[in-house]
Every structure is written in C-alpha cells, then in structure tokens.
Design a protein that fits this description.
This protein has 7 helices and 12 strands.
C-alpha cells in the first residue's frame, strides 16, 4: 500500500510538472511588441533616407504619374505570387503568415517653416511582388497623381515600413483608379525581397473575412468578420464589398483576407448610421466599405 501510494504521488508530480512546463513553453511563444519603439525605429530610418537624399524626388514621381491614364493596366508587368492556398488557416496561423506582407505607409518631409524633419505614419498597404510592387488606396497617394505645385518642390517623400523594420521609399506609381480608390505603386527595395500576399477571388455575402490593419498609432491589428454585402451603384469601378471586421483611421490600403490568407479586398472607408441622421445623434452602427479584389486585379498587368 505504501509503495503504490508513493508511485501515485510520483506520477501526479510528474504530470503537474509536465503541464507547468508545457504552459511555460506556450507562454514563451507569445510575441509581445513594443509598438512605440518599433514605430520610432521606422521613423528614424525614414528621416535618415530624407536627410541623405536616398529617395526619388517628389516632382519626378508626380511628373511620371501624370502621364498615366486612369483605369488602365500598368505598362510594367508584375510578377504576382501564384495562389497556392488550399487549406483554411486558424487565426493565429493566418496572422503570422500574412503579417510580413502587410505594410505601413508614412511620409517624411521638411515643412519649410522650421528646421525639423516631420514624419507621420498614417496609412497601410500590402506587397504583391517580391521586387517591390504594392497596393494601397488612390486617396492615400493622390498627391503624386494630381497636379499640386505647392507640394512637389518640398523636400519630402512617401515610404513603406515592413513588419521586420525595413523602410523603403516609394519610387513609382504604376496604375490607379480614382473611382475604384486603388493605386498600384513600386518601392525601391535596394535589392531586398518583399514578403508578398496572394490575390484571391471576389467573396460572396456571408463569406468569412480577416483584416490586418494599421489604425492610428496601432500596428498590425487583427480582426475577423464576414462579408455583409456586395454593391455597385455606378460604373465598373464603383463596386464595393461591405464587411463587419473592424478597422479605423490609418487602415486605408490594408488587405482584407479570406480564410486561406488570400487578398479578397482592401480597406476603403466607413459610413456612420445614426438613429437621427440629420442631427448625427445616437450612433447605431458603422458600415465598412472595402475595394473588391477584382478592381485591384483590373489594374495589374500580370506575368502569371
């Protein structure tokens, strides 16, 4: 009886230790990020690029962009990553595999009124080719695409930041659609390869969606939801996909993903629904409008 009890206790202690060890291992796998420090590093790198003139001039990018025809595929062919996903991914797996392809967009500039360099990070984007082709909203990069003499001569540039801390300057607008609120652009990766996202197919109402966005002062925010509706209230480029996954200011240009981790849309805008609209009183819901992937694909001259 004594021996059996001792053996039981030993087995119990071993089991508890194993559970504690497994719990500790799982806890160590969680990655906690200092967002302020990471954002500061991106800003410092961007300001160094501005200081050392390691970017294409705003005026030159604008001049080239003004030669483009709206709603037309880029003359430069894009080597898209071919869709390979055939398995639905759990949220944590999807986030970790897609996060490297999601980018933050910022602007570093000299205002002319002081000696300081100003840098703001205010939008999102995602990469679709290893050599630097990316996607965001038209309204994010419209300064490059519209004639603005007050901006082009200033010492400033747009850049993207990656999840592993690299900063690359925007060097060319490849295609755009104002009505579709989409822009295809290229960054100078200095020979590095970007992590990319695959483009999927348009999603029907009720389909599951995932979003990885960069709301103001928040990096890589993950949400889930469904497609709540697909609408078209005008021409081909008026198509919009409504979703329930959360996002906020700073998320413009971020990818909307399906359960396979493929891009099926892009963040666009939101619309508030009030019980008394005229008075903007008693907010009831926020409708989230996104750009469907078919609009993005229509602007890409793909090699695949």
């Amino acid at each position: 009886m004594y021996k059996s009890t001792t053996l039981y206790h030993l087995l119990l202690i071993t089991f508890c230790f194993s559970c504690s060890f497994a719990f500790a291992q799982n806890s160590e796998k969680v990655n906690y990020v200092n967002e302020n420090q990471f954002r500061k590093q991106l800003i410092e790198k961007a300001e160094y690029l501005l200081k050392t003139k390691q970017h294409k001039s705003f005026a030159q990018i604008e001049e080239e962009a003004l030669q483009l025809k709206e709603n037309t595929q880029s003359s430069e062919k894009v080597n898209l990553t071919k869709p390979t996903a055939n398995k639905k991914l759990e949220g944590n797996v999807l986030f970790n595999s897609c996060k490297p392809g999601v980018l933050s967009i910022g602007r570093s500039y000299k205002c002319g009124g002081c000696d300081l360099t100003h840098t703001v990070m205010w939008a999102s984007a995602f990469a679709i080719s290893e050599d630097g082709v990316c996607v965001t909203n038209y309204h994010v990069l419209h300064d490059y695409i519209t004639k603005d003499d007050s901006t082009k001569d200033k010492d400033n540039f747009y850049f993207v930041g990656t999840s592993d801390g690299h900063v690359y300057p925007v060097e060319k607008i490849l295609a755009y659609s104002k009505d579709g609120d989409a822009a295809i652009f290229k960054v100078n990766t200095t020979g590095n390869k970007l992590k990319t996202l695959q483009l999927g197919e348009p999603a029907e109402t009720g389909s599951a969606v995932r979003a990885i966005t960069n709301p103001t002062d928040i990096l890589y925010y993950y949400t889930e939801g469904v497609v709540s509706g697909n609408i078209q209230e005008g021409g081909e480029y008026s198509k919009r996909m409504k979703i329930t996954a959360d996002y906020a200011a700073g998320s413009s240009g971020a990818p909307i993903l399906n359960q396979y981790g493929q891009v099926i849309g892009m963040v666009c805008t939101t619309s508030d629904v009030y019980y008394e609209p005229a008075k903007e009183k008693w907010l009831q819901m926020i409708v989230k409008y996104t750009i469907p992937v078919c609009t993005i694909k229509s602007l890409i001259n793909s090699k695949s």
